[in-house]
């Protein structure tokens, strides 16, 4: 059952203000903190200014690809509720979780079934599982059927080339949360009209 959504890759105040104050604001809002290859990457000084905004009902997520101590120290005082971690081992996540006292979204990039079963090693360090494509910043797709029948003891977030106007009923039996970034953009920028349609559709579900 879909409980809500995450809008990821926010990097400007205008878009952030729009979604935070939307009548159907997303459960999660994600910020790319240490992955300069992404066009949605936010430098630390800009991030500090952005996050001065009142969160209202949303929770902030720091999206981190194998973070080093430098970035973890730089963001530790920022108002993040979750760290979304890519390419980290269970032991690395355990250390980050304990040191910084954040809830964890563990991200798995999926190509085939061998990538899916890795989730079993992260049971004790994860609050939410995110299943994403191998594209990282490129919004590629993967076969959602690979995760349709797995049994998790935690909530599941789904990303990977999902469109703003997709029929969300397709995902009801798979995911607790739908995660969009590129699917809400036009020419590489967040599009408020697409965000409006998506948030309204999530609310209907």
Tell me, briefly, the overall form: globular
CA-based gyration radius: 16 Å
CATH domain fold name: TIM Barrel
* Poorly predicted regions: none
| Strand percentage | 15-25%
Q: Helix segment count?
A: 6
Second-tier CATH architecture: Alpha-Beta Barrel
Layout of strands and helices, then pairs:
Layout: E1 4-7, H1 13-20, E2 28-32, H2 44-50, E3 59-65, H3 69-75, E4 82-86, H4 90-100, E5 103-110, H5 113-116, E6 128-133, E7 155-158, E8 177-180, E9 185-186, E10 189-190, H6 192-204
Parallel strand pairs: 1-2, 1-8, 2-3, 3-4, 4-5, 5-6, 6-7, 7-8
Antiparallel strand pairs: 9-10
Keywords:
single chain, 205 residues, alpha/beta, TIM Barrel, 8-stranded parallel beta barrel, two-stranded antiparallel ribbon, 6 helices, 10 strands, 24% helix, 23% strand, globular
Describe this structure in words.
- Helix content is 24%, strand content 23%.
- It is α/β, with parallel strands linked by helices.
- It has one domain (4-204): Aldolase class I (TIM Barrel, Alpha-Beta Barrel), CATH 3.20.20.
- The chain has an eight-stranded parallel beta barrel with strand order 1-2-3-4-5-6-7-8. A two-stranded antiparallel ribbon has the order 9-10.
- Strand 1, helix 1 (13-20) and strand 2 form a beta-alpha-beta unit.
- It is globular, with a radius of gyration of 16 Å.
- The model has no long low-confidence stretch (mean pLDDT 93).
Overview in brief:
This protein has helices spanning 13-20, 44-50, 69-75, 90-100, 113-116, 192-204, and strands at 4-7, 28-32, 59-65, 82-86, 103-110, 128-133, 155-158, 177-180, 185-186, 189-190. It is of the alpha/beta class and 205 residues long.
